[in-house]
From TrEMBL:
Keywords: Methyltransferase, Transferase. GO terms for molecular function: methyltransferase activity. Residues 29-118 form the Methyltransferase domain. This is Methyltransferase Atu0936. It comes from Vibrio variabilis. It comes from the Bacteria. One of its GO terms (biological process) is methylation. The keyword Transferase applies. PANTHER family: TRANS-ACONITATE 2-METHYLTRANSFERASE-RELATED.
Length: 152
């Protein structure tokens, strides 16, 4: 079976629009940075000083290979505080994998880690009712949030 190529344009236009709202081009954080580096590249092009954060040791290793001058954190977003305060935070295709009961605390933590005037962009799945689904489609077992009307 041929290996499918990842669409590196996924989320780029949404990020460009969100970056237009940032008041400062200072520190930025890519939560669930993975290995593609597309958001790190965009943040660098826009004059930000990006950092990446991922729970996967392998993803952090691959990200460091692609961007050796960028700081990457191997960390679970559900535990502890974020490494700093940021002017821009992205969590594209990442935080919807954390358990449902962690959603509000994690979103609150992220928002509280923004500098005044900072911007947070994220992607979520949505359904009529809140719930969660776990599977091992991509290797390790993970949770997919089904975010309905949770009152957040």
């Amino acid at each position: 079976m041929a290996k499918r190529r990842f669409n590196r344009d996924n989320g780029i236009q949404a990020h460009k629009r969100a970056l237009g709202f940032a008041k400062e081009n200072g520190r930025a954080l890519d939560i669930g940075c993975g290995c593609t580096g597309r958001f790190i590249d965009l943040l660098c092009q826009q004059g930000f000083e990006p950092e990446g954060l991922d729970i996967s040791t392998k993803m952090v290793e691959l990200a460091r290979e692609r961007h050796p001058d960028v700081t990457f954190h191997h960390r679970d977003i559900c535990e502890g505080q974020l490494p700093s305060k940021y002017d821009f935070i992205t969590a594209w295709d990442s935080i919807w994998h954390i358990p449902l009961e962690q959603q509000v605390p994690v979103l609150t933590k992220i928002v509280e880690s923004l500098n005044a005037g900072g911007v947070f962009i994220f992607s979520f799945g949505g359904t009529i009712e809140a719930g969660e689904h776990t599977d091992d489609f991509m290797g390790p077992r993970f949770t997919t949030l089904l975010w309905g009307q949770m009152g957040f």
